[in-house]
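Structure ticket #2291
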Amino acid sequence: MRDLQQPGRSVVHATNGAAATSHPFSTLAAMEILQAGGNAVDAAVAACAVQCVVEPMSTGIGGDCFVLLQKGGQGPVIGLNGSGHAPAKLTADHLLDQGIDSIGLESPHSVTVPGAVDAWCRLLDDHGTMGIDRVLQRAIAYAESGFAVTPRISVDWSRNVKRLSLDASSAAQYLRDGVSPSAGEVWRSPELAGTLKAIASKGRAGFYEGAVAEDIVAHLQSHGAVHELDDLAAQACDYVDPISSEYAGRQIMEIPPNGQGVTALLMLNILKGFDLEAYDPVSVERLHIEAEATRLAFAERDKYVADPRQSNVPVEHLLSEELAAELREKISLGKAMADPAKVTGPVYRDTVYLTVVDRDLNAVSFINSLYFSFGSCLTAPKSGVLLQNRGAGFVVDKEHPNCVAPRKRPLHTIIPGMVLGGDGRCEISFGVMGGGYQPVGHAHLLTNIFDYGMDVQEAIDCPRTFHVAGKLDVERSVPDNVRQGLAALGHETQTPEMPWGGAQAIMIDYRNGTMAAGSDPRKDGCAMGF
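Resolution: structure written out below.
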């Protein structure tokens, strides 16, 4: 239990349903659906759609989606990969012939086909109880009638004015006279409202066919992209078998590649060889071990993780005890190792993760993102679709498994998580936001719970570090003596300008028939239940 004399938020306990998201309006939308008789899938899609409107820098209908779902508190965990692919005409040779050896964040070539809407419709058709028309109503209302911008979102918005100004359509739809909205200002997105209505009316076809698709393709082609209407029409999410590893007597479930969930499992496999309980949760020793495991696991990620439909990804090797033991031997408690490989890729912290559990114990772990803040900063002018830049996750190296190729999916950073108890029932539905940080966040959150006995809110609130680009980001809440101790071991420490993402989690107590939900105060996290 948290110290009641210290300010903070309490765990939300409920019996009939709970939701945890990174925005109060999103959580409220989920609660409305649950209380109207919808299930966790209905509520999750409704909540995410709202965040696509009220938190446009972090997610949108022009992005991708991944989901883990267990129905009724038992049975197999269903995985859904809702990531999009590169256009059919985009090849490494096409880029190299133009002198492009890496895909920039605002490049039209960074735009992969959005997968989110296709995934939402598939989820609702297969596992929901309400139609897409019903669950989009709250999002449509916010886009059409407006919503009040929160202080945190106003800050995130203001940090992207320069990037949004690069595209006239983005500037017109996401700035007002060249200025981002301030806290408390009411913001409307009428073009986006029209597209949400088209999806509500026509389902998947309202996005991937007709006027919306034509608007997206025309805008991309005007910037030099090679997308065609067939690329959008071909988008299809895939059901996948989750991958897992054992930690603390539980099975930790992740989406397989092209997602980076295997990185979180490799980290946990390395960490379970250490007696973390012997150290304070915010100690030099604990954070040093975590940082070293991060560097080792990410080096393996960057070598291997790609689209398994087009590349050989050695998942069994990456999850093997032999690899974990080999990497663990490289960690010295007395000194930071020479960098095995820097965590690569652009540094970003934007995504939305949410989780919902309903009265029937359907548990949904759900993540949706544009990749970088405001994605590519390219917005289709008539439909208001802000397009992701997930293709910046490709490399332009024909010998690398993650090389860009036609209809290929890039390495993906967004990963929902789920923990199964020894009886195979969902014990925790959880996720962490923050781009490349997410595997570290998964490992940090779960070791907080299982090694240090924290509740879900304490585990979310616990200070974080992240070894990225050769330096160790240390949040301001880490004590100075710990920061100094990490530096003494050879870590080059720095304080990040913004905290790394956030987290949401719901723990299910089958004995008492209750749910315990936590959300992250680093963003606008909000957990509710009834």
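Closing remark: The mean pLDDT is 95.
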